[in-house]
Amino acid sequence: MSSNDIKAYFEVKNSRDFTGKVVLVTGSSSGIGEGIVKLFAILGANVVVTGRNETEIQRVAKEVLELSPKKLKVIHSAVPHLEASKGVIINISSGAGVMASRGKLGYHCAKAGLNMLTRVLALQLAPKGVRVNTVSPGITKVPAMPAGREQVYEPYIPLRSVGYPLDIAKAVVFMASTDSQYITGDLMAVDGGFLLNVPNKPYD
Fold this sequence. Notes:
There is one protein chain. The protein has helices at 6-11, 31-42, 54-67, 82-85, 105-125, 149-153, 165-176; strands spanning 22-25, 46-49, 73-74, 88-92, 131-137, 187-190. By secondary structure, it is α/β, with parallel strands linked by helices. It has 2 domains: 1-79, 3-Layer(aba) Sandwich (Rossmann fold); 87-204, 3-Layer(aba) Sandwich (Rossmann fold), CATH 3.40.50. It has a 3-stranded parallel β-sheet. A 3-stranded parallel β-sheet has the order 4-5-6, with helices on both faces. 29% of the residues are buried.
């Protein structure tokens, strides 16, 4: 359908309806992944909860069913048939993929590699109708964050607040929706502007 077709404009209001879609979220038994899988469930998707802690997987699965009483798939691994379904891959990176700090060599390299993987896969899979993008969360309030840590970071965040799993989930939903059907190979920072204002610290 041409973007000039008026019907395309009306379809935007239904772009966040994921009824009948299957969404697999790796590491969705806690934190950001948990927020993402819950939002997709509310929006109608059949979700796949994955993780390494069986107790946490079952907890999230139970809560998802309470939010949206529909079929729920709980597995530890799955291979999506992306080409057949014209699916979407959304990687979760972090600011560590574009900035450096001492003492975290492996983490920075892994995230930078993930960002490049997104771009290369986007080129390779585009002819097959598969889009690949990355969402890069900033400082996010998750259970693992030490008490009081958000107050340390907030003065350096232009929007003056740490993020929450739902903030990241909304960005992922956008990237998975037809609203982003012309976006691939992109890195979306969801960080309140943190990377624009990374604090300068004395180098010693």
